[in-house]
Amino acid sequence: MKMIRNLAILTAALVAATALAQAAPKKPPQPTTMRDLVAASKPGDWRPLDPERTVYLDLSAGRVVIELAPAFAPRHVANILKLSRAHWYDGLAIVRLQDNFVAQLGDPLNSKPEVGDKRLPPEFTRSAADLPFYRLKDQDTYAPEVGYSNGMPVARSAADGEAWPVHCYGMVGVGRDNDPATAIGAELYVVIGHSPRQLDRNVAIVGRVVWGLELLSSLPRGTGDLGFYEPEQRVPIQSVRVAADVPAAERLPLEVMRTDLPIFQKLVELRRNRKDAWYKVPAGRIDVCNVPVPVRERPAERKKG
């Protein structure tokens, strides 16, 4: 009789434990891909583009959106904004498309008088002091430390006390002659191929393309030296405008994942050690140029559309 009573107590306990387990809220599955992580993100994980430091490069094929980086090249960014607001770029052209390298815009006929500063001091690096910086633990070929700051891939040298943006896919630099002071923003290039990190600290990087990069990277390759276009190949630029000067209804409602929060650290780890079902051997390390900072249209705006 005692054995039967103990068995009944044990059975009741098991039934109660099962009921509790079934009633307990189930933990959501951990994201295993970047897509999963973005889908599970919260509104506070994102920041809107600042319209005062965003420019729209409009081509006949569509719009390229560039987020400028005044934290790294303030005088160059100021001159680019000045040129944009003076409509200086309107009617110029994409003049060069070198395979696996850059797309470059400029004034092929030297037909426009320059607006703003005619010469600028180099802004290849800046002081690393007080610069927000999420450092990767991975070793880099070109710099002592690499990571992300304000949404930009960045390198840093503690010994020199300097930091600088690096030439990853989509980064925007200022073309120049041998004299660094000739870089004023009249010629801009966008990296459309493998990261040419040998250019780091030799050019002022002023931002990155956050939307519409495929409109540049898919253009026909130039047939001239260094990928320069022949006159008939040049791609006209309709306009370059500061987003703040564009009516709100015509702006793209974009937001960028913040690189100073744990969610971005999780994203880096997902890229470093891929957990997708397809991957059998995770790499265990990552390159600074192989972590795309997510950009999306604001969800509320997508629903309205």
Keywords:
single chain, 305 residues, alpha+beta, Cyclophilin, 9-stranded antiparallel beta sheet, 5-stranded antiparallel beta sheet, 6 helices, 17 strands
Summarize the structure.
Helix content is 20%, strand content 24%. The chain has 305 residues and is of the alpha+beta class.
Give your account of this protein's structure.
- By secondary structure, this protein is α+β, with helices and mostly antiparallel strands.
- It has a domain at 49-255: Cyclophilin (Beta Barrel), CATH 2.40.100.
- Helix content is 20%, strand content 24%.
- The protein has 6 helices and 17 strands.
- Strands 14-4-5-12-11-13-3-2-15 form a 9-stranded antiparallel beta sheet. Strands 6-10-9-8-7 form a 5-stranded antiparallel beta sheet, with no helix packed on it.
- The chain is globular and about 100 Å long.
Note poorly predicted spans.
none
The overall pLDDT, averaged over residues, is: 91
> What is the count of DSSP helices, taking H or I runs of 4+ residues?
6
Strand arrangement in the largest pleated sheet = 14-4-5-12-11-13-3-2-15
- SS-based structural class? alpha+beta
Query: For the record, what is the CATH homologous superfamily label of the domain at 49-255?
Result: Cyclophilin-like
CATH class of the domain at 49-255: Mainly Beta
Query: What percentage of the residues does DSSP assign to strands (E)?
Result: 15-25%
Largest sheet: 9 strands, antiparallel
CATH topology grouping of the domain at 49-255 = Cyclophilin
Order of helices and strands: HHEEEHEEEEEEEEEEHEEEHEH
